[in-house]
Specification:
α5 (251-262) packs parallel to α6 (285-301). This protein is mainly β. The two termini are 32 Å apart. β29 and β30 form a beta hairpin. Helices cover 13% and strands 38% of the residues. The chain is globular. Strands 12-11-10-20-21-22-23 form a 7-stranded mixed β-sheet. Strands 13-14-15-16-18-17-19 form a 7-stranded mixed β-sheet. Strands 3, 4, 7, 8 and 9 form a 5-stranded antiparallel β-sheet that branches. The protein is built from 9 helices and 39 strands.
Length: 603
């Protein structure tokens, strides 16, 4: 396996300011034998895709099937055909002097051969830096996910290219190896205000459609916004609830939906769209009513399994009265933007003949979905919370879970998450999943500045925004020297008066958040990172360690394994300096002559 990964991901890559970005896998209508890859050339250049086998053997090159110029950058799409099912391939995109790194993907199996998992995320939309930090542990915990679904409102203003950069950047390292797919939300059309004239409006969702290429098999005129594909026993059906500024779901899609469900030969059926049939908050009731009138009767009559939605920025899950084992309707949000629940919570469900098994406000979640021959389980894990959250469960806890069973000749829905086979822990998930990832101990670094020491730390996301205290020991008991709060990202940055010179050498600091304590850090570490400066996608890491010693810079995403990204030798003075590719939010550490620095986060 190591040799396979080395062959796929290794090899020199030319550095260039015009290197491709926003590289993503998009599903095709035949994911066992084909694969679509999309990317952007920031300087508007052309490009191609190089494909190779798991052993590193070159297979072929492919030029883009489609290329479109948008705001000075050229967006490319290539669909590879003639692939083998359940087979790993390597690829890179770009052109001479400006290639992406090598990435790997695995084609789908023919049908449902074994249990598998995927992720579903509600609206990202606003505060995308925070969103990226919140979703990263979910990707790490479900490291074997085969797909990631988004249900619209990926960004807030569709013509703001910076927001698209943040959205793609938050998933870097993930959507290059697993398929990402979505439908547009209203914010892929209408921009940042609900009044005419719309700010940053994109009436045809051109920017959304330019970034992706999904199967072209929906209603004519709805390219990349209404489509169907089958993946390992699941029929995924995407619908467009906002194909114009009036949020009209369109009668053509209703007829297409009915026919597409009826024709399915898959074990499971999942329908996804943006505006929900029942609002989970005290917002958008009239929009939900339009969707309900268009599609609810079809969804119920055809007895689909899951209906996944967003838009109303509160978690909700339930069913139509009298049909508790029928379609399960889920609404979720993954960003820090929330709507009030209203009184009573779930009023739109109650007033329209439905039962909400869960309605939770100001709580962001990521949904892990496990598919097996006889069970489909969904587990919603809390990834972030607002100040008005209506649950006392902490970040990292399971908010809601249920399982749809199809065995013994009948279908039934049960509370609790169950999959056909237990999945053994992986190297990036030592048994605790998202909860362990979000709950890891705080990390702390210390910078000495004249008469003051500056203490920087990161506490677990479960403690983000909460009270913390910094403790100091000068060789004896620990004493609190300053109190404060972590910011929304879990960062702590405080200064304290330096200790007396006679005890400075043995002074150590630690950070306490709740009942968790960080490891202790001395004022003058043998190995330490002294600075990090970002320029675009590159970060210059400066550090200090033993003189003339071999050194390496290591990077970790979330709870993943550390990987070396650069090797260098320190100077006579012990200095280390190297510019490397470090995705935002990654932890960085320096290793010199057997000593390791405390991690720092790349912003």
């Amino acid at each position: 396996m190591v040799a396979v990964l080395a062959a796929l991901l290794g090899g020199p890559t030319a550095a260039s300011a015009a290197a491709p970005d926003r590289v993503a896998l998009n599903p095709t209508a035949d994911p066992a034998r084909s694969q679509t890859v999309t990317w952007r050339a920031p300087d508007g250049a052309g490009g191609s895709l190089q494909l190779r086998a798991a052993d590193g053997r070159a297979i072929r090159s492919a030029t883009p099937d489609e290329s479109e110029l948008l705001r000075g950058a050229r967006h490319h799409a290539v669909t590879l055909t003639g692939l083998r099912p359940d087979t790993t391939y390597g690829y890179r995109v770009g052109h001479d002097g400006a290639w992406s790194p090598w990435h790997a993907f695995r084609t789908a199996t023919d049908g449902l051969r074994a249990p598998w998992r995927w992720l579903y995320l509600g609206d990202a939309q606003e505060e995308l830096d925070t969103w990226a930090r919140w979703v990263r542990p979910a990707f790490d915990a479900v490291s074997d996910a085969r797909l990631v679904m988004h249900v619209g409102d990926l960004v807030n203003a569709p013509n703001e290219d910076r927001e698209w950069g943040q959205w793609f950047g938050g998933q870097r390292g993930t959507i290059e190896r697993i398929n990402v797919f979505s439908v547009p939300g209203n914010h892929e059309y209408v921009g940042t205000t609900d009044r005419l004239p719309f700010v940053d409006a994109d009436a045809s969702a051109r920017t959304f459609r330019t970034h992706f290429r999904f199967p072209r098999n929906g209603v004519p005129g709805f390219s990349d916004t209404n489509y169907v594909f089958d993946h390992q026993g699941v029929r995924f059906i995407g619908l467009n609830t906002g194909d114009n500024l009036g949020y009209d779901p369109s009668p053509q899609q209703a007829a297409w939906l009915d026919r597409t469900i009826a024709e399915s030969t898959q074990r499971w059926t999942v329908v996804f769209f943006h505006i929900p049939v029942f609002s989970s908050a005290d917002q958008h009731h009239s929009q939900a009513a339009r969707v309900r009138r268009s599609w609810l009767e079809i969804l119920e009559r055809r007895d689909v399994d899951l209906v996944l939605q967003g838009h109303t920025h509160a978690y909700g899950r339930g069913f139509v009265n009298g049909h508790p084992d029928g379609p399960q309707y889920v609404v979720s949000v993954s960003s820090p933007k929330y709507y009030d629940l209203g009184t009573p919570p779930g009023a739109d469900w109650i007033a329209n003949g439905a039962t909400a098994r869960a309605i939770v406000g100001q709580t962001s979640t990521a949904q892990e979905i496990c598919v097996g021959p006889d069970r489909l389980g969904l587990r919603a894990t809390i990834i972030g919370k607002g100040p008005g959250t209506t649950t006392d469960k902490p970040v990292g806890a399971v908010l809601d879970a249920f399982t749809i069973r199809k065995d013994g000749g009948r279908k039934r829905v049960e509370d609790g998450f169950s999959c056909d086979e237990p999945r053994p822990p992986t190297a990036t998930e030592p048994g605790g999943g998202v909860a362990e990832c979000l709950g890891r101990p705080a990390i702390v670094d210390v910078a000495t500045r004249g008469r003051h020491d500056r203490i920087r730390a990161e506490v677990p996301l479960a403690r983000a925004g909460g009270a913390v205290r910094v403790e100091r020991s000068t060789g004896g008991a620990w004493r609190t020297v300053v109190r404060g709060r972590a910011d929304a990202h879990g960062r702590v940055d405080v200064g304290v008066a330096a200790p007396a010179r006679r005890v400075a050498a043995r002074t150590r600091y630690r950070v306490v958040a709740g009942t968790g304590r960080s490891s202790a850090a001395g004022r003058d570490r043998a190995v330490r990172i002294t600075g990090m400066a970002r320029r675009g996608e590159r970060v210059t890491v400066a550090g200090r360690g033993a003189a003339r010693a071999p050194a390496r810079i290591e990077v970790r995403r979330g709870c993943g394994a550390w990987r070396s990204v650069a090797r260098v030798r320190s100077t006579r003075a012990g200095a280390v300096r190297r510019t490397v590719d470090v995705p935002r939010g990654s932890a960085v550490r320096l290793v010199v002559a057997g000593g390791r620095s405390l991690p720092r986060t790349a912003r």
